[in-house]
Specification:
Blueprint: H1 2-15, E1 20-25, H2 28-43, E2 48-53, H3 58-65, E3 71-75, H4 82-89, E4 93-97, E5 110-112, H5 127-138, H6 146-155, H7 162-173, E6 177-183, H8 193-198, H9 212-221, H10 241-254, E7 266-272, H11 284-296, H12 300-307, H13 311-338, E8 343-345, E9 348-354, H14 362-370, E10 380-386, E11 391-398, H15 407-414, E12 420-422, E13 426-432, H16 436-447
Length: 448
């Protein structure tokens, strides 16, 4: 990894006197990647523009080929689209900083991807992690950006081992992050306790998530007051130790099949030391959700601006987050209302949402369902949603924990090895709406 990083930096330095184009993905990891590169190139006095995209396809790459840049940097995407990049941008200088499985295609690109040198460790670094290592190799002072890569890794649900552990150590040593043990609940710093339960999608709490009435009744049933003596609503941080233990125990019992996996709701909490208690972005996991809301709702600049510590932009992003959470809850309600109608086999579930769920949210919905313990471990979960340009967005996940599962294999066999991407436990693709029935039939055949 060190050698390809060093080579990438040397090649970057050769061309940094001319304007560049950064192209990054729209999720939390992609926006974190974009922020790291934005800060890094600004410090190097490099002129550049940034585009955030949902995916790379022929249309997008053709548009990029018409832009007047000699150097293109792809972050948190690109590795899975080497043929298309070669087709449209082969006369350009291409730098790819990514962590997805590379496409098998000969090229002369500057390609930094751990899969090229150490496939076993490649699952433990995010796209923003690769961008951070590039930035640090370029200038050691960029160690102050390590915490942004940790936000990206949390957004991709990654483990902090190998390279991720090294990046986390940088962030802790620099004084940006502190690690505590606690209940992994979104909004613990800012929201009333019953609201935390109502809007909890990861972990998902059957019968409680999505319902304020059910959340209040649950707390009353286990003997936890939702208000303090002054009449104001209590937050998670206000609970006494015995109350917290009671809450954890009853949440585990509520979550079907989760009795043997308490770590789903209790574990390491990663906090920004510079942020005061009560800040919406103090908890980095909450920060990652905020970034996802910006990406999924098309407000990319709010996510990048927040990471670059623009307070006005961050406030706008925080307001957008509430809208995003409501959209997720609406999608979950739709799923539970219709879950008996979906195509299901012994080892798969196909959630064909059509236009009932936004294509930018289908991946989030499938991720939540796959972690909800509603289905046995190892079940392949496929989500489908219509896009505005008459395509269908495909998102694939694996329920529970199954080290032997590989959704890329499923997508490769279904799509004849074309136009898909992702990781071992999370993948995606896009198909034409006219191919919907053919895709489903082939998918069932592969999964059977």
């Amino acid at each position: 990894m060190e050698s390809i990083l060093k080579n990438a930096v040397e090649e970057f330095i050769k061309v940094k006197d001319k304007p560049m184009k950064i192209v990054s993905h729209l999720d939390a990891d992609g926006l974190s990647s974009a922020a790291i590169l934005t800060k890094t190139l600004t410090r190097e006095n490099v002129k550049f523009s940034l585009s955030v995209v949902k995916s790379l396809d022929e249309k997008k790459l053709k548009e990029l080929s018409n832009e007047d840049y000699e150097t293109f940097i792809f972050s948190d995407l690109g590795s899975g689209h080497l043929k298309l990049i070669k087709k449209f941008l082969n006369d350009k200088k291409i730098i790819i900083l990514d962590h997805h499985i590379p496409e098998n295609e000969d090229n002369n690109f500057i390609h930094v991807n751990l899969h090229l040198v150490d496939h076993e460790k490649a699952e433990n670094i995010s796209g923003s992690g690769v961008c951070y290592l590039f930035a640090k190799e370029l200038n050691k002072e960029n160690i102050d950006l390590a915490h942004i890569a940790i936000i990206g890794a949390l957004g991709d649900y990654q483990k902090f081992e190998d390279y991720n552990k090294e990046i986390l150590d940088d962030a802790v040593d620099f004084g940006k992050i502190e690690i505590k043990k606690g209940l992994r609940m979104f909004g613990s710093q800012t929201r009333p306790l019953h609201k935390i339960l109502q809007y909890s999608t990861d972990p998902y709490i059957p019968g409680i998530t999505g319902s304020e009435t059910a959340a209040i009744s649950f707390l009353q049933e286990i003997g936890i007051n939702i208000k303090n003596g002054e009449g104001s609503f209590r937050k998670l941080n206000d609970l006494r130790d015995e109350e917290l233990k009671k809450l954890v125990t009853n949440m585990i019992l509520k979550r079907i099949g989760s009795e043997d996996k308490p770590e789903d709701i209790f574990g390491n909490i990663y906090l920004l030391k510079d942020e005061p208690d009560g800040s919406l972005v103090k908890d980095l996991r909450e920060y990652a959700t905020l970034l996802n809301s910006c990406g999924r709702l098309g407000k990319y600049s709010l996510g990048v601006g927040s990471l670059l510590e623009n307070k006005k932009i961050r406030k706008e992003a925080e307001d957008l987050l509430q809208k995003y959470r409501l959209e997720i809850i609406k999608s979950l309600e739709w799923f539970h209302k219709n879950k008996d109608t979906f195509a299901e086999g012994k080892n798969y579930l196909i959630v064909n949402a059509g236009d009932s769920v936004k294509d930018t949210l289908i991946g989030t919905l499938i991720s939540i369902i796959s972690k909800s313990n509603l289905y046995e471990n190892g079940k392949i979960m496929i989500g489908m949603a219509y896009t505005l340009d008459n395509n269908i967005k495909i998102s694939v996940r694996v329920s529970g924990v199954d080290e032997n599962a590989d959704v890329r294999d499923v997508l490769s066999k279904t799509l004849d090895g074309k136009n898909y991407g992702g990781h071992k436990f999370a993948g995606g693709a896009s198909i034409k709406m006219d191919d919907e029935e053919t895709f489903i039939n082939k998918l069932k055949e592969v999964l059977s």
